[in-house]
Design brief:
The complex is a heterodimer of chains A (198) and B (395). Chain A has 198 residues and is an alpha/beta fold. Chain A contains five helices and nine strands. The two termini of chain A are 21 Å apart. Chain B is of the alpha/beta class. Chain B has two domains: 157 residues, Orthogonal Bundle (Transferase(Phosphotransferase), domain 1); 178 residues, P-loop containing nucleotide triphosphate hydrolases (Rossmann fold). The termini of chain B are far apart. The chains are: A alpha/beta (198), B alpha/beta (395). At the A-B interface, helix 4 of A face helix 8 of B.
């Protein structure tokens, strides 16, 4: 009934997820990781969606959380801030959150100043018609001088994986299908733990 | 090798057959390697034709499929055209099920004993043949190509009598045209007869396969970006092509999908602005936008993305919604309530599907979890088959 807090994860951690194209599954993965962090590892977790218009507002609970100019909601033990204004990110880092999960769209990358110690994850499908999106993503990331993170993708095929790795000289990992981010299964938890760094 | 004793009343038919067969080269005609004769016998060295005659075939297999019958008729037409037309110019005169040998999908026409060279005047005075397959004019000694057409029509009629399926209207009419008792009312050549029904048959077959009303355009529309519109449109194109309906994919949302596929995909080839990969056919944008462009035959699958403009010209609209909790409320009720609109949730999610069905009062289909749009899985086949059937019913 009572889970033990993991003592060796005391340090604040920041995870940044960037989608190469719409429908990459960033929001889905962020929610899954936030759920794991808050309810399995019992850490104080915040999820920020840096986007001028977020669809997350449609599922949020009634408990309102206000941080500066941002309005968020508590849901499944996670503070969720949809449509989080990017100038407020630095202020939020001073708060007492243990895990900060940031979902970032391709358009917002240039504007946001992000901490250097964050763990980066790039998400997208490897279908041939999305390869151009990756080129754009990598170009944007290199302009910003941001460290390139781990590349993840839902539903990988062997050829696409090898093509991607050859084209971009990067390895890519497959994310298992997660039907419900609020109802994680053992195999999904095991995978999320590898992202979490446990 | 056939060693045949010459009968006393032999008028030279075996020798005549050998003479005729020696000059013929066709996959449906047995090859005569050589022949020799003396006063008592004649020796033929010819290809051994293994198989059942059509007459025996009917005894073993009382039902023939429509496709099988059409294949046989087309082959018979090819053999007869070859015989009738120059440089061969031979009148077969003894077309009957006994002389048609079936070897799998290939048929052979044997026994050229009473065949003779066409005189060109229609006056072939050799009154011979099998009475039940002889054209009325053959009894008077006036025979030309239309005599063989008559027998071919009778055989086709007989074959369709063994068919369990519905006979296409065009071929039924053509059969009756071939067996008219007045030779003047029959088609003048086998080639003409074949072309009279072959094109119509193809059109009818396509119409039957595609539905009661011809399906020309399918629009695939996403309720928002990233719901899998391109993936589903490509899957649908591959499915329709695999089902023999000739479809091609076209992106109308302004994204260069086919160009990217061609540049980064594998095993694709391009021909006249269309790219091919397995059962998939996709049209390149620059080609579709070109002035004076003639679109290829088949069903157009429009990948509209989130652009509504393309859907109003479509016969069938596939409207896709994401299955996540935050996708609720993104469906445009006006489009969803269109009669030709079918709703799809991607990938299958009971919760969102039920919500959508309740909201719109319409049936909602679930797209299965899928990795490769070019490969048609059992689940995808089942779904698309159901969609097309439902569309046929609605329209």
């Amino acid at each position: 009934m009572f889970r033990k807090r993991i003592s060796y994860l005391k340090k604040r951690r920041i995870y940044i997820f960037v989608g190469a194209h719409p429908g990459a599954g960033v929001r889905h993965l962020c929610l899954s990781l936030a759920e794991l962090s808050a309810n399995v590892f019992l850490r104080k977790t915040v999820l920020l969606e840096i986007s001028p218009k977020s669809r997350l507002t449609e599922i949020l609970g009634e408990t309102t959380v206000i941080k500066g100019n941002a309005v968020g909601y508590k849901n499944f033990g996670v503070d969720i801030f949809p449509e989080f204004p990017h100038p407020e990110v630095q202020k939020l880092l001073t708060e007492d959150y243990e895990d900060i999960i940031i979902s970032l769209s391709l358009e917002e990358i240039a504007d946001v100043i992000l901490p250097a110690d964050a763990a980066w994850f790039l998400l997208g499908s490897l279908k041939p018609w999305h390869i151009g999106d990756y080129k754009l993503l990598f170009r944007k990331l290199s302009i910003n001088g941001l460290a390139l993170g781990r590349c993840l993708s839902f539903g990988l095929l062997a050829y696409e994986k090898s093509f991607f790795e050859k084209e971009f000289k990067r390895s890519v990992e497959e994310i298992p299908f997660i039907p419900d981010p609020f109802l994680l299964q053992r195999s999904q938890i095991d995978f999320l733990k590898t992202l979490y760094g446990v | 090798m056939k060693l045949i004793a010459k009968p006393l009343d032999d008028t030279g038919s075996i020798g005549a057959e050998a003479e005729i067969l020696k000059g013929l080269k066709h996959p449906g005609i047995p090859i005569l390697y050589d022949y020799a004769e003396d006063d008592e016998s004649i020796c033929l060295i010819e290809e051994f034709v293994r198989g059942l005659s059509l007459e025996e075939y009917f005894l073993h297999y009382p039902f023939l499929s429509k496709t099988q019958i059409i294949t046989y008729i087309i082959q018979l037409c090819d053999i007869l055209s070859y015989l009738h037309e120059p440089p061969v110019s031979i009148l077969y005169q003894d077309l009957k099920p006994e002389h048609i040998i079936i070897r799998g999908d290939q048929i052979m026409l044997i026994d050229y004993g009473i065949s003779e060279f066409l005189t060109g005047s229609g006056q072939n005075h050799h009154i011979a043949g099998t009475v039940s397959y002889m054209a009325p004019e053959a009894f008077t000694g006036k025979s030309d190509e239309r005599r063989d057409i008559y027998a071919l029509g009778l055989i086709a009629k007989e074959m369709f009598g063994h068919c369990g399926e519905k006979i296409p209207a065009s071929i039924e009419a053509a059969v009756f045209h071939a067996i008219k008792s007045d030779p003047g009312e029959r088609p003048s050549s086998v080639r003409e007869w074949k072309s009279s029904w072959e094109l119509n048959l193809k059109k009818e077959e396509d119409a039957i396969r595609i539905g009661k009303h011809r399906l020309n355009t399918v629009a695939v529309l996403g309720s928002q970006k990233g719901v899998g519109c391109t993936h589903i449109a490509i899957s649908l194109t591959s499915y329709l092509n695999k089902a023999g309906m000739h479809a091609y994919y076209l992106n109308v949302s302004g994204e260069a999908v086919c160009e990217h596929i061609l540049a980064y995909g594998r095993e694709y080839r391009e021909e006249d602005g269309l790219i091919y990969h397995g059962a998939f056919r996709g049209m390149l944008r620059y080609f579709a936008d070109r002035k004076g462009h003639i679109p290829p035959d088949g069903v157009r699958i429009l990948d509209c993305g989130t652009e509504e403009s393309g859907i109003y010209e479509a016969d069938l609209v596939v409207y896709i919604m994401g299955s996540r909790l935050w996708n609720t409320g993104e469906i445009d009720a006006k489009i969803a309530k269109m009669q030709s609109c079918f709703l799809l949730v991607n990938p299958v999610s009971m919760g969102q599907g039920l919500w959508l069905a309740k909201e719109t009062g319409k049936k909602v289909y679930g797209f299965p979890l899928d990795n490769d749009p070019f490969y048609i899985t059992k689940e995808k086949r089942k779904l698309f088959k159901k969609l097309i059937r439902e569309w046929e019913f609605v329209s």
